[in-house]
Amino acid sequence: MIRDILNLQLELREARHPYVLATVVEILGSSSAKPAAKALIDLSGKIVAGWVGGGCAQAIVSRTALECLDTGEPCVIEIDLNDEVFGAGMPCGGSMRVYVEPVLPKPLLWLMGHGRIVESLCEFAHRVGFEAVVNDPQATEDRFPTAFRVISDDSRYQQLRPQTGDFVVIATHHKGDYESLTRALQSEAPYIALVSSRKRAKLVLERLRQEGFPETSLARVRAPAGLDLGARLPEEIALSIVSEMVLVRRRGNGEPLSRISPATD
């Protein structure tokens, strides 16, 4: 059973599918499940492998799994097996504690382009928990050792297929700005950024506007990309962009911490 769960975990990780791992950490009294029993739960709340008990235990664990997938945070739940409100059948006469842990794939960052800014972006993004796919005809694996994948045979950027939750940064030195943005805007990516001057960004957005993209769609493009750090060096520009990505991912406000009042209990 454990081997089946481990194999399925590896498959889900390879496919970048989120899931929840539930583990029984304590049993008091009578219970059909034993300590260390595990179950794998998918996005619908269905147990796809393993077992942590039937009846009320399964129902509560599945419901909690969906909540954990939404928040991204693990939790420990206590289940009273005498409580038949959620149950289905005879009570077991005990209680159990279950550790419910969401396992979420790292956010995927599509980096369109090459050069020192993109190289620094790939390195910084890797350090803060992103997996980067670099897509550019001149990109080589030796220049992007931390990349999840390097695509160099896609001159028209047809392999750019961001999914919901993916991040996109376009730094193609004007050669693929329009093509990349066209594909990115057809996705539900929460972050789409264009590394360019304001003048160039205005021209690209105007072309997209003439092609029929609505203003609400064009407003999603962050151009120029990044936060105002006064950046000049390529590494500084990359840092400003990664900082903006973290802000979007963690839903920050960008205010200096020194100006924010500490939370009170």
Shape verdict: elongated
Structural class: alpha/beta
Distance between the termini: 44 Å
Low-confidence runs of at least 5 consecutive residues:
84-90
Number of helices: 7
CATH class descriptor of the largest domain: Alpha Beta
Q: Quote the average pLDDT.
A: 90
**What is the H/E order?**
HEEEHEEEHEEEHEHHEH
Percentage beta strand: 15-25%
Number of strands: 11
Strand order of the largest sheet: 8-7-6-9-10-11
Helix content: 25-40%
CATH topology of the largest domain: Rossmann fold
CATH architecture of the largest domain: 3-Layer(aba) Sandwich
Number of domains: 2
- Main sheet attributes: strand count, strand direction, barrel closure: 6 strands, parallel
The CATH superfamily of the largest domain is known as NAD(P)-binding Rossmann-like Domain
Cα-based radius of gyration, to the nearest Å: 23 Å
Features:
11 strands, Rossmann fold, five-stranded antiparallel β-sheet, alpha/beta, 265 residues, elongated
Overview of the structural elements:
With 265 residues, the protein is an alpha/beta fold. It has 2 domains: 89 residues, no CATH class; 143 residues, Rossmann fold (3-Layer(aba) Sandwich). Helices cover 31% and strands 23% of the residues. It has 7 helices and 11 strands. Strand 2 and strand 3 form a beta hairpin. The longest helix is centred in the C-terminal third of the chain and has 17 residues. It is elongated. About 3% of the residues have low confidence.
Summarize the structure.
By secondary structure, this protein is of the alpha/beta class. 31% of the residues lie in helices and 23% in strands. About 3% of the residues have low confidence.
